[in-house]
Each structure stands twice: as C-alpha cells, then as structure tokens.
Task: structure prediction
Amino acid sequence: MSFWVRSATVRNGDVLALDDVSVTVEPGSVVVVVGGDGAGKTTLLRALVGELVLERGSVRAPAPQRIGYLTAAAGSWPALTVRQNMDFVGGIYGLAGERLQQRREALLTRAGLTEAGDRLASQLSGGMRRKLGFCMAMQHQPELLVLDEPTTGVDPVSRIDLWRLVSEAAAAGAAVLMSTTYLDEAERAGSLLVLDGGRTLAEGSLADVRATLVGSITVGDRPHRAPWAWRRGRRFHEWWRDSEQPPADVMAIEPDLEDVVVALSLQRRHEIGARR
Amino acid sequence: MIIKEFRELRRDRRTLGMLIGLPLLLLVIFGYAANFYVSSVKTAVVGPQATSAAAALPSFFDVTVVEPGEGRSDAETLLRDNTVDVVIVTGQLPALALVDGSNLFAAQSIVSVLNKVGADKVTTEVLYNPELKTSWVMIPAIIGLILTFIGTIVTSIGLVRERETGTLEQLAVMPIKPSAVILGKISPYFLVASIDMVVVTVLGILLFGVPFNGNVLVFALGAALFLFVVLGLGVFISTISQTTGQAIQTAFFFLMPQILLSGMIFPLDAMAAGVRWIGYLLPLTYFTMISQGVMLRGASLTSLWLPFLVLAVMAVVVFTGATLRFRRDLAPGRRRRAATADMGADVEAPSAR
Result:
C-alpha cells in the first residue's frame, strides 16, 4: 500500500510552510525531498507522521506501530547507552526478549555500531549518532520509514553507510521518505520532490526533474549575468533561457540535480521578486 | 554591541519580565511582607472567669473563643486544631496561658506580651515547641521546599531536555500514549522526592530533635497531594519553555514567592492584607500547615481538613491542566489518527477544517 500527503497546506503563524504540496511513497521505494533551508522539507515529513495538523489536504499513513521516524535532531537519548536506546524504543514497539536482542544486534552490526554498543549516545560522533537514530527507527521493521536529514553533518564515509542502510530498508519492502540538503546523494533516489519556500518546484525521477528545467546550463570562468549564475568549485554555472544565446566563452553542460535545483529556485525567486 | 544587546533583550520577554518584575516583587514582598512582629493573635479564654478575663485582656489578644465551661484539655484541643494561637485558662491564680509554639512568631510575641503582664497574674506554658526553636518550625517547611524544588525545577528540566534533544518529537510519533509518557517522566521524580522527604524528615528528627507527634499516614497523604501540585507545576513550566534555561528561569518565578510568601520565613499573620492573599494562593502555604500541624502538634486529618481540601483541589486543577497542555503539545496531529491507530489500521486523514 502506498502512503501519501495530498495537497497539504500548513501555516506557521503568517508563514505558509507548505502550499499545496503532495508526495506519494510506494513500498520498496525511496523518495527524497530536497530543498534549501525553510523549503518545507521537515514540515512535509512531520505532516506524514501525524506530528502536525494540516490546514488543508489529506494524509495516508500507517498506524504509529508501523511508522519509523528519525527527527532532524539527534534522535537518541544522550544519557542512555547505544543498546539501552535500542532496547527502550524496541520495547515501545512491543519487541522483547530474544527477538529484541537479535534485531538490535543485527542492526548494530549492519550500522557498524556493535563495538560502541555500551557507549553513551552522548559520547558518539555525529555520524554514529545518526546511524543509531536510524537503527532505532528501523528496529521494528516499519512499513513507512521517515528520515529527516539523516546525513546532515555526517562525514562522507558515514553517509555512504547510512545510504546503504536506507537502500536495505527499501529493499526489505519499507516505503522510505527522507529529506536531505545534499543534492549529490539525492540523485540516487528513485523519486525526488524539490521544494522551495513551501512549494513544489519539481517532482519525479531525476530525468523528470531535469525535464522540468527549461533552458540550458553553461559553465565558465566568470559570471555573465550575476543573478542567474552560481559558483561551483572554481567555476561558474549559469542558466540561460531558450531564447538567449550563451556567449562563446562558456560551455553547455548536462546539468546535475544541483544545477537543476539551483536554476529552478533562482527562477522562482525571480518570479516572486517580479510580482512584488 | 549595546544596540544588539537591547534588541535581544527586547525579544527575550522572560528575562525582560524578570528584570522589571523581580525588583517590583522584591519591593512589595520586603515592603509589605517582611515583618516578623505579629500585632494580633487569635485567643481563646476558658474556665470559670473566662468572660471577665477576656474583657480585661489587652487588644493584642483577639479573643475569638470564650468558654467558661471548658478546661485545660479543651484548651489543648483548640491549640492542636490551630483554632487559636493562645488559650488563657482561668480558675486558678495565677491564670495559665497555653501558647502554640508551632506558630513561632506569634508565640514569641505572645510570650513577650505575657511576660510584661507579670508572673503573679499569668504563667505561660509553650506547647509543641517549648523552647521556641526556629529549626522545629523551619524543618517541616523545608521538607515542602525540597519537594517544590524537585517537583518544579527538576521535573520541568527533565521534560524540557527531552524537547531540546528532539526525543519528545520522536516519542510523539511512537505508539505510546501521552499519558504513559507523562507518567513515565514524572514517576521517578515522584519517587526521588518521596525518598528525599523521608531522609530530610528523619535527619530533622535525629539532628535537630524535631518531634513527630502526629500520624505518619496523614503526613504522607499531605505530601503526596502536595507533590502532585508541584509536579503539575513542573509539567506546566515545561509546556511554556523551549530550553532548560527558560525552564529554570520560569521555575524561579514559581519558587521565589513560595519561599517568601508561604509563611515559611515571614508569618502570614504579620503580612499586610494586600500581600497575604498571595500567600494563600501558594501550595507550600498549605503543605507547611499540614507538616507543622502533624509533626509538631500531632494534628489530625479532621483538624487539617482545610489545607487538605485546598491542596486536593490544587492537585486536580494544576496536574490535570498541565498534563492536558503537555498532551496537546506532544501530539497535535495524533487526535486525528487516534481512533483508527488504536485498531492498527491505516489512516486517511482529511483536512483539519
């Protein structure tokens, strides 16, 4: 069964945190929500797990017993050891005895946390803590796994570990909805949702998202029109409308997800600015 | 830097409130409440010459009971039930003044006034705290203060820390009822506070010789009711605080009036009426009445019905209100799923409107 948020509108005071946003997650698939700060990623995830009330829209999610959720915060109890954290959460989900122990040790092994099992969560590195949070969210083998920026602040090696765990969860049949600010890693997801300012910029596969972008992206040594250019490493990427002819000193490239998201966000912000 | 600081201060309403409110509070408290001298004491006069003796007493003695037919044992009952602060027993020369030593400041004033009357006219006997020791009246009150400290500050910090680390949000999504979360969070504090109470009481008895004349169960019942009130305050504070610092700041607002206006330091009877009423809104005032009554005077549940009733009402109102608030904060979206989630079914939630 697929789970979804449809036409969700959420308001935080005067700010429209989500404006008519929809997302569907199928079992065995990973949907990644991307977007900058304040895009509405966390709000969307919280809406799906029932942590906030929608102003408009609807949600289909399994019962809490079948949801695994990792918040954007640490997600573990700092004064408990790794195993105590796992046992506490496992107990809430009705796991006990040998079943709890087996499941706990299997997950800790896969996450590379077995050695740290008796360490306090507060003594773990950022990456280890996120992996622990993931293990806690996965312990009861949920049908819906919701992960809020699980890789933020995590070193590249731990990010690879986390992605492996996410892929394994999906392969085992879980519907995974996660958010990230790292667009390079988001490219590997089966489906993407690009948010900006609480609105959907693009959605679908990487190819679908690329197709949303009208115009072309070039790379060069200097920006030609500052509002439409952004720096990546030592070079400047720039977006051009179909009607515009890029100058000779730049080279057209096949945009990756980061280029597409930045270009779409710039267009949207320009439209908003023009309306004002 | 100065402008930045003022901007931050303007937005930190709690600190601003403290900066403005605290000096005013201290001014009011120390101006109107900081008074150890009791100007009038509730008095009973018993024995054959009760009527004439009552008429002859100075105005310091506010005679509320005149019973010519009663004697010493009735006089002691009046004191034990805290009906009056002093009883003049007539029918002998000199007359006997029985003073309630558990009401320290009133007792000190009474003894001082009676000494001026002269030993040939009246002899004085102080009951329940014969040497008028401050420690005897302070320790029962301090037990309440310790419970207040654990109940409000420690509990609120424990709950707010859960919010700060993001684990409260995690709990909200898990299949655990908000009531179980609250119960699980406050039970350890309830237990620790109870152990603390026993330790302080026993130490008070052993180190300071404070008597325990009453029924332990009556004392325990009073402490349990009081704990529910202060734990409720702790839960409430956690619902209006986002950080540990805010929780401590807010708890301080609740703690300070309890120390200064509950009659623990300054006698309620000596406070100006405009401030005294605040004291009667504070739970520590009523717990102190119970703890001093039970420990020093051996007062019964019946004679302490008023503080018990007030604490019971406070416990129900504060604890229920605070936990409902906490529930609302914990799971705003849970109500819409509750019905189906309990059945383990999937939820299709329509718009909130």
Q: What stands out?
A: Chain A has a mean pLDDT of 92. The helical segments of chain A are 41-49, 82-92, 97-110, 126-138, 156-171, 183-186, 206-212, 257-275. Residues 257-275 of chain A form the longest helix (19 residues). Chain A touches chain B through 36 residues (CB under 8 Å).
